[in-house]
Amino acid sequence: MENVRSLIDILELSTEEIDQLVDVGTKILSDPAAYAHKCDGKILATLFFEPSTRTRLSFESAMLSLGGQVLGFSEASSSSAAKGESVADTVRTVSCYSDIIAMRHPKEGAPLVASQHSLVPVINAGDGGHNHPTQTLTDLLTIHHEKGRFENLTVGFCGDLKFGRTVHSLISAMSRYKGTKIVLVSPEELKLPSYVKKEVLKKNGIPYEQTTDLEEVMPKLDILYMTRVQRERFFNEEDYLRLKDSYILTPDKLHNAKEDLSILHPLPRVNEISVAVDKDPRAAYFRQVRYGRYIRMALIMKLLGIE
Length: 307
Hints:
Blueprint: H1 15-30, E1 43-48, H2 54-65, E2 69-73, H3 87-94, E3 100-105, H4 110-117, E4 122-127, H5 133-147, E5 154-158, H6 165-174, E6 181-185, H7 194-202, E7 208-211, H8 214-217, E8 223-226, H9 237-243, E9 262-264, H10 285-303
Parallel strand pairs: 1-2, 1-3, 3-4, 5-6, 5-8, 6-7, 8-9
Helix pairs in contact: 1-5, 1-10, 2-10, 3-4, 5-6, 5-10
């Protein structure tokens, strides 16, 4: 499909393009009304073959905020996929009814296949454990808004660094900025995969350290990116029970953190951040949700070629 640009992986965007999207997202944040009619007459199709509340509603809210319309489905069972239709055929059909598609699928690579058969841009809204580029853009807009820059930041990632697709994508994105330092905090069982260390951190010469102790590294961090330690990732229950509380963020674990630390989380949260932390001005995760809507507005406009 010639001349249709999709977004499947965050690394398809150059740093200049990311900076431009963050810039537009910031402008929308300060004056949403100026963008209320940018997508009048345009239709976003949301093809969610896997349940998602947050991402789907964020895309819908973004398109409606631009003056566009939304159609789609929120689970595979309510689509013709239940009858055995291929992703390629579904997308080829839906792209006849819409101007842009946001797609989530449990199979890695499905949005890439979709983009090869679509007449309109496809945005990957998450494919299995693989990619979730708009979450990474959300994280980047949050970091930029909280810190005013991407350079010279020490970013700590805590929790499940092995399976967390948001972690892998954000490490890749941040490794392009100079002065980035990465601190990896996780149980042995959930360490960052060696291929990410080799392909991203070592290849780009990014200094990093690994530890199992969050409090020990807390004073160094400018950003703390929390993730959920999921019970089902462990081979045995004792290991899970032994470890789960060491990665729960509580106010007392923040006693030696920087005054201007920003705490991020891709959400949903289960218990890995105590609700007592929500009142701390450093807790940025609900602001992050709001930024997600604005960065998706910027991305929809970019892919539709709207200034």
